[in-house]
Amino acid sequence: MKTSLPSIEKVPDCCRGGVVSSILPLVLFGLLCLAWPRVVQGKVFLIQWSWVPSLDLTLAFRLDGLGLLFGLIITMTGFFISLYASSYMAGHQHLGRFFFYLHGFMIAMLGIVFSDNLLLLFVFWEATTILSFLLIGFDHHHKTARENARQALLVTGGGGLFLLLGILLLKIAGESMTISLWAASGDMIRDHALYPAVFICILIGAMTKSAQVPFHFWLPNAMTAPTPISAFLHAATMVKAGIYLLMRFHPLLGGTSLWMGTLVIIGGTTALWGAVQALGPCDLKRILAYTTLMALGILTLFLGGRTVLSLTAAATFLMVHALYKAALFLAVGSIDHQTGTRNLDHLGGLLQSMPLTALAVAAATMSMAGFPLFFGFIGKEIMYEGALAEDMFPVFATIATLVANSLMTAVAAIILITPFLGFGRRKMNPVKEAPWTMRLGPAVMGLLGILFGIVPEWVSEHLIQPAVFSFHPDREDIRLVFFHGMNLPLVLSILTLTLGSVIYRYRTFLRHRMNTAIDRLWITTPGLYQSGLDLFLKSAGAFTNKIQNGSLHFYLFIVVFTLVVAVAWPWLPHIPGILIFPTISGPLIAMGLFAFILASTGVVVFAKTRLCAIGGLGGVGAGVALTFMVFGAPDIALTQLLVETLTLIFMSLVLLRLPPMDAAQKRPRSRTIRDACLSLGAGLLLTTLMMGMLQVPLDRTLTAFFEANSYIAAHGRNIVNVILVDFRSLDTLGEICVVVLAAWAGVTLIRRTKEG
Amino acid sequence: MESLLALVVGLMFGSALFLMLSGILVRFVFGFVLMGNAVNLLIFASGRLTHVNPPLIGFDQTIPGAPVANALPQALILTAIVIGFAMTIFLLVLLYRAYDQARTLDADQEPFLVEMPETSDQQVSEKKEQA
């Protein structure tokens, strides 16, 4: 997926707003540096405001060694990436949006590593999910970008829900929501019956975010984001959030054989799978993406240990990786930006035209490959020590680390040698060196890789040790040293370099074999994801088509059926008590009227023609009006007669222009019977309800008030009229409004018909 | 007396529902009018049919002399009749308009039944992108 940027000549060199906005991460970095010396001394900064106390949700922040390490990495890469992007993205039409997302993403990530409250952590966690969705899909006019953004959102968002579930289970198990209070609870949670459930939920949250097999596939696809974003996602944010989570939970949940075994297996598998796949593609960015998978796997692998050595290896490699990965991504972005391609087969000989970028890449890849003098070497030594010190599966861990590191060395060589020293198959156009804003980041980070390699003691004392101490209880001294002496790790390191060069030698052959082997896999997680998504959308569509089919009959039937069942369910037990057999009593004329109404109703129901039905309706209306008359309501009888007449006139007018009733298809007999049963049931239910209502004593308070005050207060002798125009005149106003609105709407509809 | 009326109302209501369920829009309007009448009768009966004198006050009186019919439900029904009338007319115009558009008043036929378009966004060919 190419970010379709035109070549450098056509666009402005640099976006000034982007440079200015880089001040934000720089300031944050400076603030962290201010707190740094105190954190090294063991101080933990805690800040707290109340937010939603009823949910245990507080705005609680905590700055300890681990948070500091992450915070420094995030703000430093954030600064360089923002600076870099101001040139890389120059001329893009949505620059403001871009920098807003970028800095928002950084702040959300800082929120994760500084949260002291688990629910707050979850809020920031979801914020990174949403912002990464926006960033991956930043080039939203590309279909691939949209789809990959959605994939990342679904995978990491789904994992986020598991994380929330895990947090809630933790709360149910009686654990505190505040990270700072965990030390007090001891082994309580590890012995709790809910422990496996909590562990699995939190693990799935971390695995989806940190792209562990089998949830790894979204990460390489997230490469559709603009390169600065990829660099940020891979080196400092997003995927590191899962690693951070595992580190944070390590003192609480870690140390059990379930934790150790699962993490070592998953981490080792991810590392191997990522490293093996890194040989496959020709796209430089994609190669880097797979090496990130490998790095994340290695980190998870080491977090599976419980010794200081394993955890130190994790923390050290975290730094090593952040430094070289950000530098490499940015350098690859520069190559892409200056030459217009990232394809290995088309690149070559860039050393002359981009010497400074070449130097930065050289430093970063040397660190990645783990040559002596570079920080990566220190990292690799401690990695082997850590792997050998694993409690569970140390042999597997060591072999996985060895193979992954060898492949990493080979990949480092590919990234360094092919574009800068090799000869591209296609003649390259003259290329200019990238502007300073794009060189600064890789240069500084490459330099740090060398510097840290020379003074490892300082790094271990000021960064690694405070970080490890904040998630490991044992105060064992941690020392990274330049040379460990002749021991097994050194032998393994030498073996790594040798194996790496062998793999580099046979890279073309291996790439070919790799790609055919992957093509032959009959089941893959991305395939499963795709078919799952397809199935979901298809069944949702089918379901919607089923229940929202536009059939009036279907809708009405469901509504009436639900109503009947919902009312009848609680009402049925009361029916025997209130049921009276209707007796023929009272004025004879009323009996006659009832019979007339029922007969007219029958005429409406069974009428074959419209005229007949209208006649029946008239009969019903007249019958009802006369009933009102008989029982002392002349006013409504009058109104009813008038309205009934008007209704019939209008109805006849309209129906004259409509097709006859029997133009419609005949309904199947079964449907008619079903409808009749339901209607009859609903009608009889209403009868019983009405009988029940009639047995409740009548409350005449209101009526008595109206009777008493009708003349005295309102000077009217017709009580019904007084109620309508005086006591409840606002109701009447509302009624008039309804009539006017209906008339208005009717006129509008008819006029449109005539125009159309 | 009232229990007999309850039966009448129930039968009217059931018939109205049956008409509305038929799916023929003209019959739907008939059912709507019928249901309005049934409900008005129900409200009327809720005030009881004990007294048959209209709720009027004689010229020489300040309150009704003899017991009169319940005035409250009558006021309510008066409002209900007028609103029901407005709704019926509106429904008739809708019917007219629907026929103008659809050329049929059978709600079980084509233009009234909608089918959601199939989502075609999903034919993604990234399966072989990576494993």
Helix and strand layout, with pairings?
The complex is a heterodimer of chains A (about 750) and B (about 130).
Chain A (H helix, E strand, L loop, with lengths): L15 H6 L1 H18 L4 E8 L4 E7 L1 H24 L6 H20 L3 H19 L6 H30 L22 H15 L8 H4 L5 H9 L3 H15 L3 H21 L6 H20 L4 H32 L10 H4 L1 H15 L5 H14 L5 H27 L15 H19 L1 H14 L18 H18 L1 H14 L4 H23 L4 H20 L3 H4 L9 H19 L3 H21 L3 H23 L12 H26 L6 H14 L4 H9 L1 H27 L1
Antiparallel strand pairs in A: 1-2
Helix pairs in contact in A: 2-3, 2-19, 3-4, 3-9, 3-13, 3-18, 3-19, 4-5, 5-6, 6-7, 7-10, 9-13, 10-12, 11-12, 11-17, 12-13, 12-17, 13-15, 13-16, 13-18, 13-19, 15-17, 15-18, 16-17, 16-18, 16-20, 17-20, 23-28, 25-26, 26-27, 29-30, 30-31
Chain B lengths: L1 H20 L3 H22 L24 H32 L29
What does this structure look like?
- The complex is a heterodimer of chains A (756) and B (131).
- Chain A has 3 domains: 8-505, no CATH class; 586-664, no CATH class; 698-756.
- Chain A has helices at 16-21, 23-40, 65-88, 95-114, 118-136, 143-172, 195-209, 218-221, 227-235, 239-253, 257-277, 284-303, 308-339, 350-353, 355-369, 375-388, 394-420, 436-454, 456-469, 488-505, 507-520, 525-547, 552-571, 575-578, 588-606, 610-630, 634-656, 669-694, 701-714, 719-727, 729-755; strands at residues 45-52, 57-63.
- In chain A, helix 4 (95-114) packs antiparallel against helix 5 (118-136) and helix 16 runs antiparallel to helix 17.
- Chain A is built from 31 helices and 2 strands.
- Chain A is elongated.
- Residues 1-11 of chain A have low confidence and may be disordered.
- Helices cover 72% and strands 2% of the residues of chain A.
- With 756 residues, chain A is mostly helical.
- In chain A, a hairpin with a 4-residue loop joins strand 1 (45-52) and strand 2.
- Chain B has helices spanning 2-21, 25-46, 71-102.
- Chain B has one domain (2-53, 70-111): Helix Hairpins (Orthogonal Bundle).
- In chain B, 53% of the residues are buried.
- Chain B contains 3 helices and no strands.
- Chain B is elongated.
- In chain B, helix 1 runs antiparallel to helix 2 (25-46) and helix 2 packs antiparallel against helix 3 (71-102).
- The longest helix of chain B is centred in the middle third of the chain and has 32 residues, at 71-102.
- Chain B is mainly α.
- At the A-B interface, helix 22, helix 23, helix 25, helix 26 and helix 27 of A face helix 1, helix 2 and helix 3 of B.
